[in-house]
Amino acid sequence: MAESSDQVSSLLLPMRGFNLVLPHANVAEVLQGLESEPSGNDLAWLVGSIEWRGIRIPLISYETLCGRESGPSGDTPATVVIYGLEGIGDLRFYALELQGIPRPMVLDAERVEPVDDDSAEPNEFVARNVLVAGQPGIIPELASVERGIQADR
Questions:
Q1: Which helix (DSSP H) or strand (DSSP E) does residue 145 occupy?
Q2: Beta bridge pairs of residue 8
């Protein structure tokens, strides 16, 4: 299926109670069965680090970072490696814990509906709350995520 200019090849990354919605181009790799090394700090969202292609990269819980309920850290079905796009320090890659296996989906304006949730507290790590094919989703503010990771390295 050829994509038109108003379609984006995306991945729905399963979190607890919602999907994180990312363009496929932001994702370096999806991994299963990795063990993480604990971070040794007091930041609950910084789970630790993983070995990936010969380098150690930070592993974070996006749910915890956003102040949401998260699943058990370190025992997740999958991990996704994200390209560090902001050029902040030496952060070239980082990883997110997932609660399931990502699903590819070509998205357009008909499949993504913005949600104006007045009850949700503003969060610098959330660019937009959405419904994707009728399911709750979040488009993350990756620049803020990367600044948060870099600030605590």
A1: helix 142-151
A2: 107
Structure tokens at 47: 């789970």
Cα distances (angstroms) measured from residue 136 to each of 15, 40, 115, 131, 151: 10, 33, 9, 5, 29
Q: Tens digits of per-residue pLDDT, 118-137?
A: 656 678 999 999 999 889 99
Please give the backbone phi and psi of residue 24, each rounded to the nearest 5 degrees, phi first.
-55, -30
Q: Quote the pTM value.
A: 0.87
- Res 77 pLDDT > 90: no
Residue type, 140: P
Contacts with 113 (C-beta within 8 Å, 6 or more apart), sequence order: 130, 131, 132
Residue 12 tokens, joined: 């729905």
Rounded distance between C-alpha atoms, residue 96 and residue 127, angstroms:
17
CA distance from start to end of the chain: 42
71 by DSSP, 3-state: which? coil
Give percent of the chain above pLDDT 70: 88
Burial class (CB in 10 A: 0-12, 13-18, 19+), 54: exposed
